[in-house]
Amino acid sequence: MGAGRRRERDEGGTAPPEHPPVTFSPSAEFPPLTDAELTALHDVGQRWHADLGGHPPRDAVLPLDPSLEQYRQQPTPGRFGRLARIEMFRTERRGQLTVTGSADASGTWLRRAPARLRRALLGPPLASAAVLQERMRKLVALPVLSSDLLSSVAYGPEAMLAVLVLAGSGALGLSLPIAAGLVVLMVTVGTSYRQTIRAYPHGAGSYLVASDSLGPRSGLTAAAGLILDYVLTVSVSVAAGIGAITSALPGLTPFTVPLGLLVIAGLLAGNLRGVRAAGKIFAAPTYLFIAAVLLLFAVGLARAAARGFTPVPPPQVGAVEGLGLLVVLRAFASGASSMTGIEAVADAVPAFRPVEWRQARTTLTWMVGILVVLFAGLTILIDFNGLVPGGDETLLSQLARRTFPTGPWYALIQAATTIVLLLAANTAFNDFPRLLFFMARDGYAPRRFLHMGDRLAFSNGIVALAVAAALIFVAFGGYTQSLIPLYAVGVFLAFTLSQAGMVAHWRRHRGRNWRRRAALNATGALLCALVLVTAAITKFVAGAWVVVLAVPLLVLLCLHIRWHYDAMREALALPPPQVPGTGRPEPAGGPGGSGRGGEPDPMGRPNRVEESTGPGDLLVDLTPREVRHLVVVPVARLNLAALRALAYAASLGQPVFAVHLSPEQEEADRFRQQWETWGDHLRLETIISPYRTVIAPLAQYVEALHAVRPEVTLTVVVPEIVVRHLWHKLLHTRTELLLRRALRDLPGVVVTSVPIHLPE
Amino acid sequence: MGAGRRRERDEGGTAPPEHPPVTFSPSAEFPPLTDAELTALHDVGQRWHADLGGHPPRDAVLPLDPSLEQYRQQPTPGRFGRLARIEMFRTERRGQLTVTGSADASGTWLRRAPARLRRALLGPPLASAAVLQERMRKLVALPVLSSDLLSSVAYGPEAMLAVLVLAGSGALGLSLPIAAGLVVLMVTVGTSYRQTIRAYPHGAGSYLVASDSLGPRSGLTAAAGLILDYVLTVSVSVAAGIGAITSALPGLTPFTVPLGLLVIAGLLAGNLRGVRAAGKIFAAPTYLFIAAVLLLFAVGLARAAARGFTPVPPPQVGAVEGLGLLVVLRAFASGASSMTGIEAVADAVPAFRPVEWRQARTTLTWMVGILVVLFAGLTILIDFNGLVPGGDETLLSQLARRTFPTGPWYALIQAATTIVLLLAANTAFNDFPRLLFFMARDGYAPRRFLHMGDRLAFSNGIVALAVAAALIFVAFGGYTQSLIPLYAVGVFLAFTLSQAGMVAHWRRHRGRNWRRRAALNATGALLCALVLVTAAITKFVAGAWVVVLAVPLLVLLCLHIRWHYDAMREALALPPPQVPGTGRPEPAGGPGGSGRGGEPDPMGRPNRVEESTGPGDLLVDLTPREVRHLVVVPVARLNLAALRALAYAASLGQPVFAVHLSPEQEEADRFRQQWETWGDHLRLETIISPYRTVIAPLAQYVEALHAVRPEVTLTVVVPEIVVRHLWHKLLHTRTELLLRRALRDLPGVVVTSVPIHLPE
User: Fold this and answer.
1) Which of B210, B342, B463, B514 could make a disulfide contact with B510, Cβ separation 3.0–4.6 Å?
2) What is this model's ipTM?
3) How many whole angstroms separate alpha carbon A93 and alpha carbon B454?
4) Distance of CA A517 to the CA centre of its chain
5) Does the CB of B556 have a partner CB in chain A at under 8 Å?
6) Which uninterrupted H or E stretch holds B163?
7) Helix ranges, B483-544 (H)
8) A112 has a chain B CB within 8 A of its CB
9) Does residue A227 belong to any structural domain of this protein?
10) Residue B714's beta-bridge partner residues?
11) Residues of A in contact with B82 (CB under 8 A)
């Protein structure tokens, strides 16, 4: 209910629209203000204007020129600075500077080293303007987005046959009709995704489609399924790839976990380099795999033709189960695992070059076409050669060995399969961050997933996926095979919701041929739902229950994140005009509340209006006149740091006093004498803390001051000693830090650190 | 050389005197200002006075009364507060408040729980005024300070005989003369410590005596030896105690490490409760042990008398080594390990009730007396009964079994021995924090060791010892026997230096009978040195080399700490009057430096004097007039938080401008439009960061501003969003924190956090 309610409120106007026309742009982190916010902003500006009587501080002369125009020749590094390079800034127009270089390469050699290593691994940073060039051409997109989908033909037909053979070798004849059904499913899903891409040209993933058509909870359910699946894809496919390597080179078996982490790190680095770079790295193996399997077909067909297309009868295998509908359905669902990567293109639509949807659609068509050819061809060849799953050898390997009894071809096919299985993880690295970007844009994921890294990739999402996959990989010791039953369920959950969403979409929007389109999507939804239910039921005990449990938990987490962001946005929203017509929310006397006791204001100002205290106090202090100051300076010892803090505080020209905390009366008296030696320029308050605690009494004292007159802004000026070396921090008690932490909880208390730097 | 030079300079007057008459007092953390510092303080005060023209801000009316006098009836907890309890403060005299309750017991139940547990374990906090009552009476001091010393008679005689028996059972006859020599050593060291306590009534530990008489390096050497020894005492004696328990109950052996940690935790808690409480806990076992051993003597003597004092001949044991001087020396040195706890009283003198030195001296006399009686008595009885070390049973156990063949007495003696061995660690818990207190007072240890906890114990030192001992205990898996050779060396290093220091002391101060006193101390020093050299040489390979290595390293660490504190004190010292006579360090125009380019000051003030820029810039900004302000407000989005920060910044009445960081030109233009909608009240500077980094360009920009005019104090006002729950922090990018960290390195840049609190 909560989400539905919130959704309705969002449509009221304060929230950004669900699908603004911007897509993958660095500005996504800065959503524009809504009209209501702009109105409120204007209103606050009017209050400010009235308060100041038309003398904006904007016109005051500053002690230096903030555009640095006069000073461009002076790259003077400070004595303590480690970033001082003014040349970094280029002045273009009045009031605007542009950063001309990457900012992370300065300071000492040791401090620069991590940044340099990063640059060496990831390449130079890319400017925001390059975002278009970083988008994908079709030839790059195909290998980047299809490795997951295409690699699955290496195990999809086998998974189907492995179920059928349970009913005896006689049942293997069913493989061709089931495969035909799967091809129908592939074509249906592919075609309906083509429709989806056209209908949602700014991103056509299940999350977006289901959110838009069926409501945010359906979208989040689809997203949760996909998130689980992406993480599993990475760890399982890396485990499978490493397994293939270690069965070839058994000496490497003890290094399974480090090898796997190395592969994940490689994928991480490759993807952090950005889409184009990742395409360059990952294109060759995918194309090699396609070529190798096509070669297998050609030779296999030639050999079959030489035999006059007479099929080899399979060896007799006894039945373990009776042949029933359940076995057929299970075989169908298992074979459908070949389709798990088909979603990749849909989420990545905005990452294509313009016209995005057209390029994406063509790419999808090609991918599905290749998938159908590979899948159908393999199934037919296996049937023709009478191969039976089982034993230590995969069907693909049996087929290759039988087709190429001699020569290097067999090894080539095996190697290409291994590499492409490893790279299947790469699809997840492309899709997962984009999915999180869309979720973060809607407030369902942390906002940091909106940030584009310095290579214009969504680095935070890429890193999150790598970390999650590595954790699972390490937790299972590199043997993640037990996670395979969890697979597929998440994807087909997403497919079903996406297709069902499209049906709803057509019903709402209609348009040309909408009935035909809706029927196509409905067929897809039905078939996907069939696979989903079959997979969830038959694999429930083996592990699918984890997904059934994890999906709602993830959805709940996303909703909680959204609720937090909603609460934050409400709290930070500007006050709407409360008195329509006047445009001022408060009477002309200014907002605020009087002191609790109603005592006369010692500053001689008129008492503030009572009714605006309490929950409305977030709405005051929005113009300079509304801020009433009291500056407090805690002083432990009258040294240079303390005197600077005192001078700073006094120089602000606001009411100020000092407070000293003492464990004993004698010490307090001694301090007061020193204070008088200094000249007693400021009022001094002493607190005796007989239990020798420092932070708690000070914080409590400030809180008491605040409670007395909540409308006064208390500024606590703390001298902060800055040391150069980390271990020197151990020699200081860091009162400043602890005090700041204790005061954080208090509204209306501003903490100011006046630093003093120790040499050496 | 460094330390000597610094010592000389310290005597020049800027440093606090090495041994002020205060001792263990909570005010030790606030050393009084020296005369030079007071003069400088007065001088700065005069500058301030002249700058303000006799209108001190002290007389300004504050918007509320900081003494809270009018508001005592209002314990209003804030919406976010967790410490709001105004009743805590009691107003006594004008300008002074006293904390009347412990500050840590407030907030929610969960937040209070740790504080409550602490209170339950440690008891209510003790006020500083109770420091005198927390001091020790003699009857409490004896068990608290002597458990280490007295428990060592359980193994001292055995250690001596174990060396002698290497030369065959015939050599065992030498045990009586060697024991006599050891008694002479004990009496000599005891007597000379009596003299030391009289001469250094404010603390007579080796560190203090050697520092004062032989220079700080000797003192630190002695301290390093003692520090190592205290840590070893705790882990070794806990290991020995647990060993005794597990040999009685072998089922507990797998729990050696947890049991040992439990014992260390118990010692920690007992000592954190304070001296008096620890005395109550630890007194009974020590007295029980003394009584048990005395009973053993009485019965043993009675039996011997019944035999007509005829000694039992020892069983024949073949010689492994020839009987030579080395064996005798080694036996002497091994027996001397009975003395390792004798230092305890000397460091603890100021913890006695007045008259401190007299009470301490009497306690020492008693301790040494009991030690001599127990040691000599045990050695004689062992000789009388013809007991030989070796086998699985300790000599004390053999003796007890022979003296009490039946009845519960044997078990009683064994139990008392076990408990007192465990408690031997307690002496270290008393002495170690006091030693660190003295070192911290001189700047050779972190200042936090000056702090008295809320039970008036030096909690930081107690915790440090427990942690160090526990680490060693865990690292050696509870089997710390291999550390025993490291023992003794450190203590006798300290003894030797202390006694030698006393000789130097008498030579300097003379006084009545100084030659006799010096001769006594010289004898003590000689004997201790003999033991030290013997122990170091004979145990070098077995482990003493660790001490030989660790002592200089520790001394170096202490010197480094002192250098850091010296540098800090110099950096924070107030500027001495630079122009004698006038009392003003700068011409009347005010200190400071002009901008680099010499451009005209846009504020219209006269240009500052050139010569005071550069290294002397720490000396300006000490009066309000000397502080020149420029306020910078980074704004990401025009929400409530940003507008409050802008209003706060503008309300200070100083020159102010805002800066916005944008990843793209489009976003920058959009932001400027919003700025104009608001009313364009402040000058806005935009920075385009095409590489999408935020913190580095902002920090670098501020640094560039600072480099342009270092004499301007830049105040960066950052809105800070405060969330209630820890996990919500993950949802925010915490720019404020990162920016603060990046700006910390810049001198003259003040960071102000304007908090805004999210509800829920």
Assistant:
1) B514
2) 0.80
3) 61
4) 33
5) no
6) helix B156-164
7) 489-509, 514-538
8) no
9) yes
10) B630, B749
11) 745
Cβ atoms of A583 and A576 within 8 Å: the answer is no
In a domain, B414, yes or no: yes
Q: What is the pLDDT of residue A279?
A: 73
Query: Considering all CA atoms of chain A, what is the largest pairwise distance in Å, rounded to the nearest integer?
Result: 113
As a whole number of angstroms, the distance between CA B221 and CA B83 comes to 46
Residues 6+ apart with CB under 8 A from A51: A590, A623, A624, A625, A626
B89 closest CA partner among A154, A683, A687, A510: A687
Express each pLDDT in B434-455 by its tens digit.
899 999 999 999 988 988 877 7
Residue range A566-583, pLDDT digits in tens = 888 888 887 765 544 444
A493 and A382 within one domain:
yes
Q: Which amino acid is at B527?
A: L
Does residue B593 or residue B69 have the better pLDDT? B69
Token readout for A129 is: 């303007």
Q: Are A323 and A175 in contact (CB under 8 A)?
A: no
Q: Are residues B273 and B137 in the same domain?
A: yes
A53 interfacial to chain B (CB closer than 8 Å): no
- Taking only the tens place, the pLDDT of each residue in A459-486 is 899 999 999 999 999 988 887 767 777 7
Give, in order, the Cα–Cα distances in Å from A69 to each of A65, A608, B682.
7, 45, 19
What pLDDT, in 10s, does the model give residues B694-741?
A: 888 888 888 888 888 888 899 999 988 888 777 777 788 777 888 888
Q: Check pLDDT > 50 for residue A85.
A: no
Residue found by looking up tokens 């838009």 in the block: A212
Q: Are B197 and B362 in contact (CB under 8 A)?
A: no
Q: A residues 666-705 near B, CB within 8 Å?
A: 666-668, 670-671, 674, 677-693, 696-697, 699-701, 703-705
What is the secondary structure of A34-97 as a DSSP string? PHHHHHHHHHHHHHHHHHHTT--GGGSPPSS-TT-GGGTT-----SS-SS--GGGEEE-STTEE
Which among A672, A231, A162 has a CA at the least distance from the CA of A433?
Answer: A231
Q: Tokens representing A204?
A: 């056509």
In the block, which residue shows the tokens 């520090």?
B227
Residues B408 and B291 in one domain: yes
* DSSP secondary structure letters along A436-447: HHHHHHTTSS-G
Q: Does the distance separating the beta carbons of A747 and B757 come in below 8 Å? A: yes
The domain containing residue B494 runs over which residues?
Answer: 132-566
Query: B691 vs chain A: nearest CA distance in angstroms?
Result: 5
> Whose structure tokens read 């046959």?
A161
A592 falls within a domain: no
Asked whether A624 and B651 are in contact (CB, 8 A), the reply is: yes
Q: Largest Cα–Cα distance of chain B, in whole Å?
A: 113
**Chain B environment of A755 (Cβ under 8 Å):** 744, 746-751
B349 and B470 co-located in one domain: yes
Q: Which positions 562-591 of B are in contact with A (Cβ < 8 Å)?
A: 564-565, 567-568, 571-575
- Distance from the Cα of B498 to chain A's closest Cα (Å) equals 28
Residue A691 has a pLDDT of: 79
Q: Are residue A388 and residue A501 in the same domain, yes or no?
A: yes
B582 within domain boundaries: no
Domain's final residue, options A517, A541, A566: A566
Residue B616 has pLDDT above 80, yes or no: no
- How far apart are the CA of B219 and the nearest CA of chain A, in angstroms? 21
CATH label of the domain that carries residue B480: 1.20.1740.10
| Total number of domains constituting chain A | 2
Q: What angle do CA B122, B125, B128 make, to 5 degrees?
A: 130
Q: Do A635 and A706 belong together in one domain?
A: yes
C-beta atoms of A564 and B447 within 8 A? no
B755 phi and psi, to 5 degrees? -80, 150
CATH number for the domain harbouring residue A651 = 3.40.50.620
